[in-house]
Every structure is written in C-alpha cells, then in structure tokens.
## 1
Amino acid sequence: MESHDAIVIGGGVIGVSIAYHLARLGCRDVLLLERGQLGGGTTAQSSCIVRTHYSVPENVALARRCLAVFRDFAGYLEDPEADSGFTRCGLLIVAGEGPRADALRETLAVARAQGVDARAITHDEARRILPLLQLDDIAAVGWEPESGYADAYLTLTAFARNARRLGAVLREGVAVTGLVRDANGRVAGVATEQGPIAAGTVISAQNIWSREVAAWTGIDLPLTLSRHAVFTLEGPTPYARGLPVLKDLASPGKLYMRGYGGRQLLVGDGNEGETIAAPDTVQADVPLDYVAEIGEQVAHRLPAFAEAGLAASWTGVYDVTPDWNPVLGPLPGVAGLHVAYGFSGHGFKLSPVVGRLLAQSALGLPTDVPLAPYALERFAAGRLLAGRYGTGAVS
Ligand SMILES: Cc1cc2nc3c(=O)[nH]c(=O)nc-3n(C[C@H](O)[C@H](O)[C@H](O)COP(=O)(O)OP(=O)(O)OC[C@H]3O[C@@H](n4cnc5c(N)ncnc54)[C@H](O)[C@@H]3O)c2cc1C
C-alpha cells in the first residue's frame, strides 16, 4: 500500500500552508489530497483582507505574526519569486456612538498591548487618509496603517510551489472517503476513491466539508454553513491600489470595502449571511435589491460612490463555529488526527501561522503560541473565544 508520514486533506490555502510547513519543519514525506483543484474551494471566493483588528487577544497573536509574513512573503518562504499580492494600504474602522464605538476603542487597545500599531485617530486625520469619507454620524475612528489585503491565488500557489520544492506531493482529483484506523483506534491512513493510503498522521483542512470528519469519527464538529455575497462597484473616479480597507461598523450591514483591480471598490457585508444545509461552492444569485440596499450604505459613507455601477458579484460560503473562531489541533479521542476548520470568514489572513501551528502540533513540536484556546473541547466547556463585538468575523 502507498504510505507517507503525513497526509493533509484539502488543498485550500490552509491545507497547502500546512503541507508547506510540515515539509519546512523536516517532515519530507507529505502527501496532500485535494478532491478538485488546489484553491478551488472557498479560498477562491475570499476578499483576502489582512488585518490585526481582533478583540480576542489570541486572534491578535496569530494575526500579527501573519501580517509580518505577508509583508515579507518572499523572505519568509526563502523564494525570491514568491508574492502574496499584499497591498499595505492600511485599515480604517469607523463606528457610531454607543457600544460599537466602545468596542472599537477597546479592540484597538487589545492590539496595541501586543505591539501592533493600532490607534484612534481624529476625523480630520481620517479625512486626510481617505478624503471621500462622510463622518457626520461617526464617533470613533480606528487606524491600522500596516494592514491591507493580499491575493488568494498568488498566496496559495507560492505555498504550493515551495511545499513541492521541499519534497511534498500535492495531488489533485483525489477525494478522501474515510479514515483507516488500527486496532487501537489510532489513525493509520485514509481511504480514497482510488484505494487506501497509509499515514500515521492525518490533518483535515476541509473547511465547509469538515462534517465529513464528523461522519468518519462520530465526533460532533459544530459547524454551520453561511453564504455571503460580495460585489464590486465602479464609479466615475478610478481608485488606485492605495485606497485603504474600510470597515464601517456604523452601517446596518457592518460593511467592509477595499480597492479591487485598481479601478473598483469591493464590498461585502458583515452580517450573518444565508444559512445553507450542505456544502456548496456553486454560485448563487446576488439579487439587485440586495446590491441596491448595500449600495445605499456605501454611498452614505462614500458619497462619491452614489453614482457607481455594479461591475461584478459573486457568493462564497463561510465555515462558521459557535464563536466564529477556528478549531485547531488534535481531535480528542482519535490519536493521529488533527483538524483546522471553522475559519468563519476570516481564515485567509491566518493561513501562514495556522499552517505552521498545525504542522508543529502534528509533529509533536512545541507550538509558537498555545493551541489550547482553539481546542474543540472549548464549546462543551463553555470557554468560547467571544469578542467585544459579539459573534462575527471581526471577533
Ligand atoms: C466571501 C468570502 C470572503 C472572505 N474574506 C476574507 C477576508 O477578507 N480575509 C480573510 O482572512 N478571510 C476571508 N475569508 C475566509 C477565507 O477565505 C477562508 O477562511 C480560507 O480561504 C479557507 O481556506 P481553507 O483551506 O480552510 O478552505 P478551502 O479553500 O475551502 O479548501 C478546502 C479544500 O478541501 C477540499 N476537500 C474537502 N473535502 C475533501 C475530501 N474529502 N477529499 C479531498 N479534498 C477535500 C475541497 O475541495 C477544498 O478545496 C472569506 C471567505 C469568503 C467565502
């Protein structure tokens, strides 16, 4: 039977980063199995915003390490051709008077406590950064100058190329259909449509398909699937790549916006999304009523976009856990099996460090930061990673 030291299930940005880091940490016999094409899952739908604005301190610890990687991607991968497409344009966060403004100020302080450049700024300073801003209903403005956005395709392909350079095998078109266990219940490999493959370590990075792991093991993995719409607007003014990322906590949709392709504005909403029963990356309709409703909110904050037209739209699905934070590490009760799922719409930016942490944990090495807060057991124990904004992708 074909045999490897470690098998990664899933070739999204998380799985590919795990494979790369396993190889980098010395595990030279790594096999990644992807049912479709590398990056063809939810990674392809990502808005790719890279920020450290989190109120859960553990998330800041991950995000600030990731930001350092995105800023020096080629150096980190020791590959002069590696480019994550990272645009350091800064992140502006605005909130109206009340609990969200309080949460914003407290969240900036959480990041500052870990050495992140995250500050409250005046309205005048905010207008200097983004002259298009309408701030009449805004009480608090936060600014993270180091943040920005990257490119999912470039990031994933750089991890994949370097995983292969270090000896990992990344195989497309192979669906994992089950786990192989030994007499003691320990993981001994995976079952695939093309036969079993042996490995003492298996890491699932299956995102919205992670319920398959629950079916294979009988272990409940809390997960809801939430579909979100994203669209781009093109206005009379072409915006350069320097347009900062904007998070509008004062808008009903808690919108996020960023530059797209040099001329357009990408817009997504921060609400719960549409719950769907089964994992599916097929594109759903983005109703024009929705675009009009969200477009009005955009025009309220950025009046220059009042006349903008719809350029493109798509949908994407989040793998949401009860506290909107991921589950990372060994799965209790099944020795040799590890999971990384539940990124709840904010996993792209975490991919460099999550890959390294999962590789460290799977290889029995000390982890750079404790994984215990992200353990599956936290849900049953009531130790949720709850943030100051309540549940949501900015937790
Ligand atoms: C609309 C949208 C906007 C987002 N915006 C942001 C953002 O601005 N910033 C941010 O940080 N994050 C964002 N995210 C989240 C981020 O994109 C995801 O968390 C991240 O891409 C998930 O990567 P992944 O590798 O876990 O999942 P995926 O890319 O979905 O990869 C999972 C892979 O596993 C494969 N697979 C599953 N089961 C099997 C099996 N049995 N056998 C073989 N292969 C299997 C699938 O085919 C798939 O390719 C956004 C997500 C969406 C949907």
Note: The chain is about 25% helix and 25% strand.
## 2
Amino acid sequence: MKRFEGQVAIVTGGAQGIGLGVAQRLGAEGASVVLLDQNGALASEREAELSGDGIEAMALQADVTDRQAVEGAVAKVLERFGRIDVLVTAAGITGATNIKTHEVDPDDFDRVMTLNVKGIFLCIRAVLPAMLKAGYGRIVNMASISGKDGNPGMLAYSTSKAAVIGLTKVIGKEYAETGITCNALAPAVIRTAMADGLPPEQLKLLTDKIPMKRIGEVEEVVHMIAFAASPECSFITGFTFDASGGRAVY
Ligand SMILES: NC(=O)c1ccc[n+]([C@@H]2O[C@H](COP(=O)([O-])OP(=O)(O)OC[C@H]3O[C@@H](n4cnc5c(N)ncnc54)[C@H](O)[C@@H]3O)[C@@H](O)[C@H]2O)c1
C-alpha cells in the first residue's frame, strides 16, 4: 500500500518549485493533492499535468494572506474530499534582498512577514478543525536556514523564517496529544524560481556558505518533507528539519 493512499494533502505554493515537487511526490505515493496557489492559471496547468500522471489533483486559486480566501478554499476541499490529512505550507517570497537593514523598505518588510508568517498561520488555523475532528494531521511548514542562521542582506526574509520556526514549535506542542504533528524544514538555497530571482551577489554569498559548495535540488528537500508529512512521522513534532548541504549541523 502506498504511503499516502486515501489521504488528502493541501500544498500551498503548489503551482511551482518546492510546493509542486511535494505535490508530485505525495500524489505519486497515493495522495489526492490540492494545489492552493495565488497563480490560479499555473495551478490549473499543473492540475492537468498531475491528472495526466494518474494523480487526483485539484487546483485552487487563493492568496494565503486573505483569510476569507483561505477559509473558502479549505471549505471547498472538505466539500469535495471530506478530509484533510496533510498541509504543506510552501507559499513564500523573499522580498527585496542584497540590502542592509537601513535600506529595507518597511512596506516590503510587512509584505514578506504577512505572506511568510501570517499566511502560514491562516492556513493552519483553517485546517486544524478538520484535523482535530479526525484525530490526525501532518503539518509541514517551509522555513529556511535563514531563520536559524540569519542571512545578511535578507532581513525581512530571515526574520519571517525565524518566526515560522517559532510558530512550528508552538503548534507542535499545543496539539501534541491530538494525533496532529507540526514540523518545519529549513533548507539552504534550492534550485527554483525563487533562487533564480535572487541577485547574483546574494546567491553567491548563500552558496559559498554551503560546505557542499552547491545549491540543493527540489527532490533533495522533497524526501524530507514527504517523511514529515507521512504517518511515519509520529513521534516528532515542533521540530525543524535541516537540508542545507552541511551548513547547519545543529
Ligand atoms: N528555493 C529556495 O532556495 C528556498 C530555500 C529555503 C526555503 N524556501 C522556502 O520554500 C518555499 C517554496 O519556495 P520555492 O523556491 O518553491 O518558491 P517559488 O517562488 O518557486 O514558488 C512559490 C509559490 O508560492 C506561490 N505564492 C506566492 N505568494 C502567494 C500567496 N500570497 N498565496 C498563495 N500562493 C502564493 C507562487 O505563486 C509560487 O507558485 C518558500 O516558503 C520559501 O521561502 C525556499
């Protein structure tokens, strides 16, 4: 029997990058996957591709910072599938980078914090009632090495990812006796559109810090996320897993 057979997984930011990789993997292992993304057109294209691969997929356009949109999307998932076993929160942005703190635009800081932190909170808040009712749930948040280490040039992003690590600890502990686990992953740079969008100086700085001296591939983080999203991850909660080519050894 496949690991996610009969399960339903919502993946935010599922239209591309790490989120899409997670959706493909969980789908290949039996899950019905919901691609919840701001980019509705791309999510629909991916839905068609996944369906072509024999995966039950559903694209939903929603901005994770919009409470009504998130709650409406979760209601649609429950209407169609009647359950939510897994939530992977991969929607995120870096905001402006390669700038020092005195150069950070406070509006950009707000934008990054709202999406990377409040967006995750809103999605988790929306799925928890169904998970509590079922007595089972796996929540996996995309944090970043920047939240553990603090990446110079990335104040807003690093601050937001440190918050994701903190939020993950609280939720892990609050629901520890309910069958729901909440963990995070803190990767170093991974080859996606997000990494492609970084200024070359910023990308070089981040790659140079990795002892393996290369950036990671989506598949290399998907393995860990799939474990944290699976029934096998039953005695680990509130934890932030590493995938940083040796950069974080703590
Ligand atoms: N790529 C990296 O180097 C790296 C490293 C560490 C952590 N991460 C984290 O992993 C996650 C995924 O990163 P990625 O590289 O795949 O990014 P990406 O830019 O390739 O994909 C992000 C997805 O999120 C969606 N999205 C953006 N804003 C949204 C919103 N408001 N509502 C709903 N969807 C929205 C986008 O449309 C896109 O499909 C992010 O949280 C990121 O911070 C990435």
Note: The pocket of nicotinamide-adenine-dinucleotide is lined by residues 12-13, 15-19, 37-39, 63-65, 90-93, 115, 119, 142, 144, 187, 189-190, 192-195 (CB under 6 Å).
